[in-house]
Structure formats: C-alpha cells, structure tokens
Amino acid sequence: MFIGYARVSTLDQDPEMQVDALKRAGCDKIFVERASGAKRDRPELKAAIEYARPDDTIVVWKLDRLARSLKQLIETVDGLEKRGVGFKSLTETIDTTTPGGRLVFTIFAGLAEFERSIIRERTVAGLEAARSRGRVGGRPRSVSDEDLAVAKALLKDPEITVKKVAKRIGCSEATLYRYLPAARANA
C-alpha cells in the first residue's frame, strides 16, 4: 500500500498540488500536515508512520516535505526501514524499495556522515588553535570577582536581601545563587 504524506509550512499555503501528485502515484491514504519541516512534533507524519505496515511505502512529493535536514531525513527513513516500510520521493525519484533507490539513499547518508565528520574536525582544530593562542572558549562570566566581593560584603547584613544584592551588582538572583550558594541562607 502507498501512503502519502503532504506538508505545507504555513496555514495559507495549499497542499493540493502535492495531494494531486500523491493520488496520481497511487496513494491509497494521504496524510496532510500544516507545519514547519523544522518542527520535530508533526502529528500527521507520526500518524502516517504508525498507519504503515510492513511492505507499505510512505510517499512524499519532495524530500523536503518529509524533513528539513539530511540528518532528520536519514533518521526517519532508517526508522521506516527497521519497520519494513519503504520510502519514495516523487520529485527526486528515490524509492528505497528498489536496489537503485537504496543505493542513492545510502550515498546520501554517507555524504551526510562525511559532512558531520568534517565539521567536527574543523571545530576541534579551531578550538585547539584558539587555546594555543591563550583564548578560552565558552561564555564570559556574568559576575566579576569584584562584584562577588561586594555581594559577599552586602550579604553579611541580614537586612539586605539576595534580591537587592543581585539588583545592585546587575545580575539575576539565580546567577548570584550559582556563584554564592551560601547566599540562600540570607534570602
């Protein structure tokens, strides 16, 4: 059985063109979603996947209707494959139920993994180069040592609240608690 999945990103877009193409492709059941592809929570996609049985095929008009990133696409198709469900994209003519379609999809997956590895290597190399120049990564501290000294001095006075001290040194109460856990005793 062919199960169609059509998605448009906004409420004012019309999925009719996709639905028509899915009907022409022989889809017996079509699920239509109005949601951004970047959203992980897409109830109609979930329903389509749950509706599919082994030897069924999920059909989309175009790859980007199923997922916005290659990683997300590969994860989704791998999940389908584990359940014995095929995947077909009409525009890109990918069909994982055929040897050629599986090959194309495997090449896509390999390229995505290669790209992730290259990005990881560049990131590690960049961090090492920055460290060798004395730069330390991460977010700068929001409270200086001077501010902490002032906060400690102010907190010795039981009349001054943590809220007032935090406001005085220009941070939130939560930040002050993170730097001075003992400040809770003076709250």
Short description:
This protein is α/β, with parallel strands linked by helices and 187 residues long. The chain contains eight helices and five strands; from the N terminus they run βαβαβααββαααα.
3D architecture notes:
There is one protein chain. With 187 residues, the protein is α/β, with parallel strands linked by helices. Helices cover 51% and strands 12% of the residues. It is built from 8 helices and 5 strands. The protein has a 5-stranded mixed beta sheet with strand order 2-1-3-4-5, sandwiched between helices. It is elongated and about 75 Å long. The model has no long low-confidence stretch (mean pLDDT 87).
Q: Tags for this entry?
A:
alpha/beta, single chain, 187 residues
Low-confidence stretches: none
The helix count comes to: 8
The count of strands amounts to 5
Strand order of the largest sheet: 2-1-3-4-5
Task: Give the SSE string.
Answer: EHEHEHHEEHHHH
The main β sheet shows up as:
5 strands, mixed
Portion of residues within helices? 40-55%
Distance between the termini: 65 Å
Average pLDDT over all residues: 87
By secondary-structure content and strand pairing, the structural class works out as alpha/beta
Beta-strand residue percentage: 5-15%
Radius of gyration: 27 Å
Principal-axes shape call? elongated
